[in-house]
Design goal:
single chain, mainly alpha, about 85% helix, about 0% strand, globular, disordered C terminus, membrane, cell membrane, MATE_fam
């Protein structure tokens, strides 16, 4: 664990706290897996409302227990990790009870707790793109941290952390939108209703693009106030650097929804190869850019590399998704003529 924490920039007093937090999180990782998996099954069955309520309970418990463990029992980062782990455990239990309920049309029974090679062959190709995406994002984050430390010092890592947090807040609604249209696309693709598949993807991308454009404008106009939420006003250097990092890294934010939903779309229809390619495209393009740009432009090159990568990958994804939609509609028309 120690080398991994250091590789991600955990040095000095941050190292000990990071190790304490990671230890608790890793020990409780099985609870995260069950919470995510069971609630994803619930969403896949079309009960998005139940999943939303479960995760709202998770968030509420996390906040309450975090406050108790940190401020009452003075457990610090260990308390924060315990709160996160235990709240996920509660969320997993609630989801399991819901799936075992008589009201559930696909009720979990003991006879289902066995491996089925045929089912595994279906699940694994669909899940691999998400797995590879998460791994590639972790690698990119590691490289980001190392380069920030090399070209800008610890303060650059802090600025990058702030930008990452803000980006997560923007990405989550888009990912939620993408996951929301997943069952609709899947059902219609299975029913060969390709016009509905196209319409669903178009509506999702349009809604996501409107959201990202609004976020982009807010960042350009209110970058300093947004960053100041996460930075102590007594540290003007960090405030200025984080503002710069936010502006430079989010230049191509308006096309983010097209990238995410476009990459997701191939996963929806079971095209694992294209989904893997498009899901990892941003990271694959980003790695050489983020390594080469700082050589000439220093820390500025690190911050702007994300925008350049987003532009290139965005164009490629748009080309791919446009061709795929035309292909789906062509297949439908061919079937109609044959019949």
């Amino acid at each position: 664990m120690d080398p991994i924490i250091r590789a991600y920039g955990g040095i000095g007093p941050v190292f000990d706290e990071a190790k304490q937090y990671a230890t608790v999180i890793i020990l409780g990782s099985v609870l995260f897996v069950y919470a995510q998996s069971l609630n994803s099954i619930i969403r896949g069955m079309g009960n998005a409302r139940a999943k939303m309520i479960n995760f709202l309970i998770d968030i509420f418990l996390n906040i309450i227990m975090g406050a108790i463990f940190i401020f009452v029992f003075h457990l610090g980062v260990v308390g924060a990790a315990l709160a996160t782990t235990l709240s996920s455990g509660v969320c997993a239990v609630i989801a399991f009870i819901q799936l075992c309920s008589d009201k559930n049309p696909a009720r979990i029974k003991s006879k289902y707790f066995k491996l089925d090679k045929n089912i595994i062959k279906i699940i694994v190709p669909i899940g691999i793109p998400s797995f590879i995406t998460q791994i590639s994002m972790s690698i990119v984050t590691l490289v980001y941290n190392r380069l920030c430390l090399s070209y800008g010092g610890e303060i650059s890592i802090a600025a990058f952390g702030i930008v990452t947090t803000i980006c997560l807040l923007i990405n989550m609604p888009i990912i939620g939108l993408g996951l929301g249209i997943q069952p609709i696309v899947g059902y219609n693709y299975g029913a060969h209703a390709m016009d509905r598949v196209r319409e669903t993807l178009k509506v999702g991308m349009k809604a996501g693009t409107v959201f990202t454009i609004v976020c982009f404008l807010l960042i350009e106009i209110f970058a300093r106030p947004i960053v100041s939420i996460f930075v102590n006003s007594s540290d003007p250097e960090l405030l200025q650097l984080a503002e710069k990092a936010l502006r430079l890294s989010q230049i191509m934010l308006p096309i983010l929804a097209i990238q995410i939903i476009g990459a997701f779309s191939f996963q929806y229809i079971g095209n694992a190869k294209k989904s893997i390619f498009l899901s990892t495209l941003r990271q694959v393009i980003l790695l050489p850019i983020i390594i080469l740009l700082p050589i000439k432009f220093g820390i500025t090159g690190v911050f702007v590399s994300q925008s350049i990568s987003d532009l290139i990958s965005g164009i490629i994804i748009i080309i791919y998704i446009t061709k795929e939609i035309k292909s789906l509609l062509s297949d439908k028309n061919t079937e109609g003529v044959t019949v």
